[in-house]
Amino acid sequence: MPETKNPPLTNDLYAYLLAHNPPLDTVQRELIDATRARFADDAGLQTAEEQGPLLAFLVRLTGARRIVEVGTFTGYSTLSMAQALPDDGRIIACDVSEEWTALGREAWAKAGVADRVDLRIAPALDTLRALPADEPWIDMAFLDADKGNYLAYWEELVPRTRPGGLLVVDNTLFHGGVVDTAATGGAAAIRAFNDRVLADERVEAVLLSVADGLTLARRTGR
Questions:
Q1: What is the full per-residue pLDDT of the chain (222 aa) written as tens digits?
Q2: Cβ atoms of 166 and 218 closer than 8 Å
Q3: For the chain, where are the E strands, in sequence order?
Q4: Which of 94, 109, 128, 213 is most buried, judging by how many CB atoms fall within 10 Å of its CB?
Q5: Rounded distance, CA 15 to CA 170, Å?
Q6: What is the three-class DSSP state of 63?
């Protein structure tokens, strides 16, 4: 068996990690805190704190201008990416909750990036299927939504992503449940998704042990 080089992520080590990443600005911090206070029972849906700077880094690294996000919740990931976009960049953000995304709207406005976010409240598959499909145009996609539809979202996003474009997928270790061959529910859905990505010749992909598992996939020219 291969041996992991990952140290146990203790609270102290996690605090050290956060302290050595780009600091969150006031709006980002307020949004995270407000999410925990207002939606305590659902706060686990929020993108991990360290992923905000990572997503912003990836936007700048790829030079992305056209982003599609599937699963917005209260908008921390959206905010992080929008702040990294050029002035003419846009994010199409897909969610089904007016209540959750209202908090995000407040934060995007406060940060001065509301004009970069095109929030679409509808089932994400409907939104994705209505997007232009005549030629690949997405520079970057971020998927962090209901796990049972990951495969369906993937099949809509990949053909619309330009060659060299980046797809970022969250929760691809599903709390460790992906190792269970008898997994059900979300864990089974993520197992099937990971197998599909591994075999998908349209992309080259890596699965990383970031937060709850993060897959980075680059669209090839195939």
A1: 788 888 999 999 999 999 999 999 999 999 999 999 999 999 899 999 999 999 999 999 999 999 999 999 999 999 999 999 999 999 999 999 999 999 999 999 999 999 999 999 999 999 999 999 999 999 999 999 999 999 999 999 999 999 999 999 999 999 999 999 999 999 999 999 999 999 999 999 999 999 999 999 999 976
A2: yes
A3: 66-70, 90-95, 117-121, 138-143, 161-170, 203-208, 214-219
A4: 94
A5: 21
A6: coil
CB-based burial, 134-159: b 16+ in 10 Å, e otherwise: eebebbbbbbbbebebbeebbebbbe
Q: What is the pTM of this model?
A: 0.96
d(CA 203, CA 222): 8
* Helix/strand/coil percentages in the chain, nearest 5: 50, 20, 30
The answer to whether 171 touches 106, Cβ cutoff 8 Å, is: no
Token pair recorded at residue 202: 């349209």
110 - beta bridge partners?
A: none
Which residues on neighbouring strands pair with residue 142, listed in sequence order?
69, 168
Nearest to 55 by CA among 178, 211, 196: 211
Amino acid at 208: L
